[in-house]
Amino acid sequence: MAKKEFPERKLPKEKKGFPADEPYNFGGDFSNRVSGLFSKSFSVIKFILGVLLLPFVFSSAASFLNEFNLVNKDLQGIFWNGAIFFLGLYLFIWEPVSIYNKGHKILEIVFSFFKPMVNVAPFLLPIYTILFFIIYGLLSLGIKSDWLLEYALFLIGFSTVLHLVFSAKTIRTKKGDFLKGNYIFGFSFIFILNLALLAFGLSLIFKEFSFVNFCNISFTTAGNIFRSVFKQLFMF
């Protein structure tokens, strides 16, 4: 008796994303779905952490202003003039992105021995602000003049806002940021860290500015915000 032959089983020739003459890649498709799900889950976690950082964003800003208001008003004005000058330059004349990128390259060279820091340090650390603090500290050892402090404060104000603006812009324009988790968490962390570094540097220049008070007020204010929110949500 003749052996019964069964027709060869073939997969359909059409499927979106695959050429008709190529086999399916079931494993790759599943892997992509898992990767996408993991990415979205991680973005949700970063979004939650970013929201939790918002009270510290407010408290650190309030604490910084509280301490900085103790400094001479004229010197305060010079610092804010530097910040305002950058904003005017950025909004109406020229975006100094080349200056920001050169700062990135400096930090990449500095942290070239530790690759993980190469990727995050340019966003976290305001390299120009740090350099201006160091340069002022060295020059002030031999130069006792008001103009040196005035120029330093102007440049510190300018460079601090430069770093915050371009870091925010870089993070915001990244694609695939589900729920803006990267932006909310990343920029909140950068803002807090930059204010802390700025507060530390100013505390070395001005005896009226206390870094310890800055930290204490920041944590106390943030703690009060968390307690108030908790009472509103769970205490009836």
List keywords for this structure.
236 residues, mainly alpha, 75% helix
Largest sheet: none
In DSSP terms (H or I, runs of 4 or more residues), the helix count works out at 8
- The structural class is mainly alpha
Distance between the termini: 86 Å
Q: Approximately what portion of the residues adopt beta-strand conformation? A: under 5%
> Helix and strand string, N-terminal first?
HHHHHHHH
Gross morphology: globular
**Residues in helix, %:** over 70%
Roughly what is the average pLDDT, rounded to an integer? 85
Overall radius of gyration: 26 Å
Low-confidence stretches: 13-18
**How many β-strand stretches?**
0
In the residues, how many domains can be counted? 1
